[in-house]
Design a protein that fits this description.
alpha/beta; two-stranded antiparallel sheet; seven-stranded parallel sheet; TIM Barrel; about 260 residues
């Protein structure tokens, strides 16, 4: 399904109200399903890599996954992209082009970050199903710009914490299994920044299955339930309303400490 077709399904509110002013963090659903997502980002400071062991685990376990790529990562990892795009269980999200703070760039620059990544994916015959802002940082203007590209803005509700050097394999397993629930969007990294991701992932997948949870692509999860539009009682202001405060969803996945081993 194209982003343009998915967008109304995700953001249409009952009664035809305006679109939400917060990112999608999880989906309200009775289905025992979760979305396994990964960031594959490159920055101006480094292209990073590709965690092949993570990909091999996904293939072996036949787990669908959504990979949020930065366009620069796509452009510098042709071999990895050829493999990923050949796997029907992999879908893609847009994670900007070179991982800037989207709340601090101009509207034109923010739009270009999204468009350049879409162009990079189009060279492989793919498109994004959603946009995930770098660092999880967003404000009303970012949401509006992304909506103008016919993409929902999606973050997460379960943080693996895999980029942290303090991460332990057992700690990551405990954190994900404790936080996951039906409709959860779980974030990992597949660009070599996850210190223990490939070690923890098999046990995480097994543990989630033992709890009766199954894995679906993010796009499917968003179609199966209701996307919350904000905390209870939050005023839904017009999308054009100005805001100056950048909001960091939950906590930066780069900095979340995990329980000690």
């Amino acid at each position: 399904m194209s982003p343009a077709a998915l967008f109304p399904l995700v953001f249409a509110l009952r009664g035809g109200a305006a679109a939400p002013v917060r990112p999608v963090t999880h989906v309200d659903t009775r289905e025992p399903a979760v979305a396994i997502t990964f960031d594959a980002c490159a920055t101006r400071k480094g292209a990073y890599g590709f965690d092949r062991e993570v990909f091999e685990t996904l293939k072996r376990e036949k787990v669908p996954a959504t990979i949020f790529v930065s366009g620069l990562w796509v452009d510098t990892h042709a071999d990895a992209m050829a493999e990923l795009t050949s796997d029907p269980l992999i879908e893609f999200g847009d994670h900007s082009y070179d991982h800037p703070h989207m709340t601090k760039v101009t509207a034109a620059q923010a739009g270009e970050e999204i468009e350049r990544t879409e162009a990079a994916l189009a060279r492989y015959g793919r498109h994004s199903v959603a946009f995930r802002p770098p660092f999880g940082e967003w404000n009303r203007r970012v949401i509006q710009i992304v909506r103008g590209k016919n993409l929902p803005t999606v973050t997460w509700d379960v943080v693996s914490g895999d980029p942290s050097r303090r991460t332990t394999t057992d700690g990551m397993i405990r954190a994900v299994l404790a936080g996951a629930r039906p409709g959860s969007i779980i974030i990992f990294h597949i660009n070599g920044r996850g210190w223990k991701t490939h070690e923890a992932l098999p046990a995480i997948l097994s543990g989630l299955r033992e709890r009766g949870l199954r894995f679906v692509p993010l796009s499917q999860l968003m179609r199966t339930g209701r996307v919350p539009v904000g905390p209870p009682g939050e005023a839904q202001q017009p999308a054009s309303a100005p805001t100056t405060a950048a909001v960091r969803l939950d906590r930066d996945p780069q900095r979340v400490p995990l329980p000690p081993r």
